[in-house]
Amino acid sequence: MTGSVSISLADLRAEYTQSGLEARDLDPDPLRQFAKWFEQALKAGIREPNAMALATCNAAGQPSVRIILLKSLEEDGFTFFTNYESRKAAELEANPHGALNFAWLELERQVNVTGTVKKLSREKSEAYFKTRPRGNQLGAWASRQSAVIPDRATLEARMAEFDGKYRGGTVPTPPFWGGYVLAPLEIEFWQGRPNRLHDRFRYTRQADSRWKIDRLAP
Ligand SMILES: Cc1cc2nc3c(=O)[nH]c(=O)nc-3n(C[C@H](O)[C@H](O)[C@H](O)COP(=O)(O)O)c2cc1C
User: Fold this and answer.
1) What are the sequence ranges of the domains in the chain?
2) Per annotation, catalytic residue among 122, 134, 196, 215
């Protein structure tokens, strides 16, 4: 055993007083409700309001989680881009269920989404890749995301290699890179309230594609 760590945070707590959420405030469509809250997060100046935690789970039931960026929201769901050989991709291959969490703490809000995940069409992935800065495009080629590497120099050498390879031309989309869409089955909106009596509303997708809304205990 080496040294031990002990951090006591019992006195670190915030009261949530900014606003409340009532059933009458909710849009019947959770994606429109999400768009409304997202707009408010943008207006509030939250840094990277499109940053979200993505939880995936391997076939053995072990979950893993990481932050990624939401790149679009359309009728079919939440789109993000990543490496198709990464840990998250392997887990999604084995188990195409995922969960997202947006934490907009400055607004005392979180949104939780669960659903099923599919690869985005190749055309859409390539169309998005083309809009990325060249450095990011090269970075996608250079990094075998989630693989063990010996040192940073190895990464930089690969970056230089692809920089040379595609000098003066467009950088093609790596075959191992692209988007996923998480189609929501449940979306929960959480607004912090005093005394931990927070407001929570969960939308659940019904068989007829309509959404049922329930208030949950905090
Ligand atoms: C703010 C932020 C945004 C990120 N956005 C992405 C992203 O859009 N796509 C991505 O693949 N990784 C993104 N990452 C890196 C991931 O958190 C993660 O390290 C990487 O995807 C490898 O995850 P995995 O090994 O679990 O597959 C982001 C990290 C942070 C902190």
Assistant:
1) 23-131+175-215
2) 196
